[in-house]
């Protein structure tokens, strides 16, 4: 198969694109659906990608997605059929990861995973970019691989390209977006959630600007057709002739379907754990969120809607963090603040487990070992806490007098996560 352009031509196209992407980045928040609406739920891909996930956990994942009305469940290839069976007859789609999670699998394996997922009913694919080729400037190899995958997963299958933005420069993010656009991928996605810091507002804004600049793409049965005005202009500006592949990308490629026109969209994933996280990413330009905390986000959204306390990330302070009106608090600061807050006398007893506090700026839980002690919490504060309990521990291993409710969830490290809020 012959690539559309030489690596040098790709470099010229990418450079021309970069010149117009950065001026297109906007700080103006995008519109966000009402947080307790079905449209908000439809922004969430309910995700379970840990290696030791069980069939029962996949069943639970799908059940939660059906009840909440999420856009999709995102699973590994081996759970494709089970997930499809679970969501049959609902609006929930099944998204399957391809080349997960490094993206360095050979093309034959990625093609096999893609064919398997599509043939078993998956309607969305989250494909991990081979960053090695991208970083080496081997753009033709990147294009060929992605085009081949698109050739065996034609519309209406949606394909998202996982960039792992924490490992890429801005220029490399733009390069990946250009190639994803050229092969008619539907989304560019920030992260796998398994490497680096995950999604950031800055990266989502950059990716959103890429999608706007690159404009509309035509979706067909195989890649490389129908580049429209915006992209053609960028290619022409780079001094490169606009060409389509002379032959199909695969001998038995599916026939072209009716051409549809759309723009690429952005999926934010990795570190999206709270309602505030979700709102920030949507305001930055994401239209889909990959998270394992979808149920909790929707529960928080419902509670905030009922109390009229929903606020956006435009505010200078946070209504969703550990303390209202704070923008940056470290675990040590939180612990010190809690210990010093003696008014109203609400007490909680913690054993010496690792636990972490949610904060607006954190990208991962920062666990801190706390010896057994009495901690007094000011009930004026709105606190979200996480207590990690070893898998072989019992629920009775921790007690507290100020927890109105708790929720159990599974984390990738196979420990039970108990989430609660206090100070209501």
From TrEMBL:
EC number, UniProt record: 4.1.2.4
Keyword Lyase attached: yes
Broad EC category: lyase
Cited SUPFAM superfamilies: Aldolase
Family assignment from sequence similarity: Belongs to the DeoC/FbaB aldolase family. DeoC type 1 subfamily.
Gene Ontology BP annotations: carbohydrate catabolic process; deoxyribonucleotide catabolic process; deoxyribose phosphate catabolic process
Transmembrane portions of the chain: none
Catalytic activity: 2-deoxy-D-ribose 5-phosphate = D-glyceraldehyde 3-phosphate + acetaldehyde
The organism's place on the tree of life at top rank: Eukaryota
Keywords: Cytoplasm, Lyase, Schiff base
Database matches in NCBIfam families: deoC
Organism: Elsinoe australis
This protein's GO CC annotations: cytoplasm
Any one Gene Ontology molecular-function term assigned to this protein's record: deoxyribose-phosphate aldolase activity
The protein's name: deoxyribose-phosphate aldolase
């Amino acid at each position: 198969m012959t690539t559309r352009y030489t690596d040098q031509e790709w470099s010229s196209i990418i450079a021309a694109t970069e010149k117009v992407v950065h001026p297109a980045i906007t700080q103006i928040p995008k519109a966000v659906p009402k947080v307790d609406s079905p449209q908000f739920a439809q922004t969430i891909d309910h995700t379970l990608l840990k290696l030791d996930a069980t069939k029962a956990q996949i069943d639970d994942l799908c059940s939660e997605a059906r009840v909440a009305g999420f856009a999709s469940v995102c699973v590994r290839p081996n759970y494709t059929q089970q997930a499809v069976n679970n969501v049959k007859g609902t609006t929930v789609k099944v998204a399957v990861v391809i080349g997960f999670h490094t993206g360095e699998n050979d093309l034959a394996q990625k093609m096999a995973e893609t064919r398997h997922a599509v043939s078993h009913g998956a309607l969305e694919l989250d494909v991990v970019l081979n960053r090695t080729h991208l970083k080496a400037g081997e753009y033709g190899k990147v294009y060929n691989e992605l085009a081949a995958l698109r050739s065996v997963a034609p519309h209406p299958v949606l394909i998202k390209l996982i960039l792992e933005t924490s490992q890429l420069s801005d220029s490399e993010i733009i390069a990946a977006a250009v190639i994803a656009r050229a092969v008619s991928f539907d989304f560019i996605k920030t992260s796998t959630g398994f490497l680096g810091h995950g999604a950031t507002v800055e990266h989502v804004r950059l990716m959103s600007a890429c999608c706007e600049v690159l404009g509309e793409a035509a979706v067909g049965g195989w890649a490389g057709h129908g580049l429209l005005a915006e992209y053609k202009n960028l290619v022409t500006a780079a001094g490169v002739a606009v060409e389509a592949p002379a032959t199909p990308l695969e001998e038995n490629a599916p026939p072209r379907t009716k051409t549809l026109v759309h723009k690429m969209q952005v999926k934010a994933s990795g570190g999206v754990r709270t309602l505030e996280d979700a709102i920030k990413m949507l305001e930055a330009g994401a239209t889909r969120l990959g998270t394992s905390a979808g149920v909790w986000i929707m529960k928080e959204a419902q509670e905030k809607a009922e109390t009229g306390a929903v606020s956006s990330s435009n505010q200078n302070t946070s209504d969703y963090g550990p303390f209202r009106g704070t923008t940056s608090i470290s675990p040590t600061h939180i612990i010190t603040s809690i210990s010093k807050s003696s008014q109203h006398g609400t007490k909680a007893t913690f054993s010496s487990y690792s636990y972490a506090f949610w904060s607006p700026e954190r990208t991962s839980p920062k666990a801190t070992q706390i010896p057994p002690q009495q901690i007094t919490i000011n009930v004026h504060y709105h606190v979200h806490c996480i207590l990690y309990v070893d898998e072989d521990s019992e629920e009775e291993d921790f007690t507290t007098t100020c927890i109105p409710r708790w929720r159990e969830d599974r984390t990738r490290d196979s420990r039970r996560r108990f989430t609660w809020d206090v100070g209501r």
